[in-house]
Amino acid sequence: MDFQNIEISVYRGVRDTIGHKSTLYDFLNYVEYDAIKELRSTNDPERKKEIKKSLLQATISGVFAPKRSADNLVKHSGLICVDIDRKDNLHIGNFDNLIPDALRDIEEICYASHSVSGAGYFCIIPIKYSEKHKQHFEALVRDFESMGINIDKACGDVCRLRCQSYDLHQYINLTAKPYTKLYREEKQIRPRFGSCQSFSNSDTDEKVAMLCREIAHQHIDITVNYDDWMKVGAALSSLGENGRQWFHLCSSMNPGYNPAECDRKFTNLLKSTRRIGIGTFFYACQRAGLKI
């Protein structure tokens, strides 16, 4: 992979909507080190925002003109950039070592680095079908979740801005393989008349169901404390109403299980905007020794 020949649009801060054409190589290497060092060292949240807004920004997925918008895509770069934020992955105990511990093993990642704050990460991934950007991204969301990693779902926007950053221990893989998976939303099979059970073709739903059956069979409690209970519930709420039955099942393994309280909690979690994906549930099962 030749970073020097991959064209992207670069913007002089978030208020710049016109931008200019540049290369991925220049954006990643010609960095405003002093400004980023100040951002990472200051404790003033307003100053942090001010610096971040002024730093160079780029649309890693391509060139846009005359203004940055999905409808103005001139040329796709063949890349998707995903964010991995600490706040969405509090369940990962080794988060500070995510690049050497996990990201280096993903052969489709061509670049991984700490984000501008130094608290999160971003990964650049080549894709096989640039015209199917969204389908690739949705598949990536699910693949990362299966590894217990939640990525920012806003990264599915083809014209999303990436703030310039630097990392002394950045990971570069010039022989990365293009990501080939595409997500196709499965059609829901309607239950037969008189049946109260709902069915889904989703692989995720099937995995959750299999794990929950094992939880019940082995009587394993993955909701030992309130924080664990909340995380499991939030993860299962990402399945919508389909997750309610599994939240009850997991909760019922705890001696303090209260069906009414469990029901209220799940209803509230469905309304929440907190982003916790199903990967958190898979990770809890993995910690408990469960495997599919």
Order of helices and strands: EEHHHEEEEHEEHEEHHHHH
Largest sheet: 4 strands, antiparallel
* CA-atom Rg in angstroms: 21 Å
How many beta-strand runs? Answer: 10
Note the overall shape.
elongated
Low-confidence stretches: 187-201
Number of helices: 10
Q: List the quaternary state of the chains.
A: single chain
Distance between the termini: 35 Å
> Strand portion, in percent?
5-15%
Which class of secondary structure composition applies to the elements?
alpha+beta
Q: Average the pLDDT over all residues and give the rounded result.
A: 89
Indicate the percent of residues in helices: 25-40%
What does this structure look like?
- With 292 residues, the protein is of the alpha+beta class.
- It has helices spanning 24-29, 33-41, 45-54, 98-101, 133-146, 203-218, 226-237, 244-251, 259-271, 279-287, and strands spanning 7-12, 20-23, 56-59, 62-64, 73-76, 79-84, 111-114, 121-126, 162-163, 171-172.
- Strands 2-1-3-9 form a four-stranded antiparallel sheet.
- Helix 2 (33-41) runs antiparallel to helix 3 (45-54) and helix 7 crosses helix 9 (259-271).
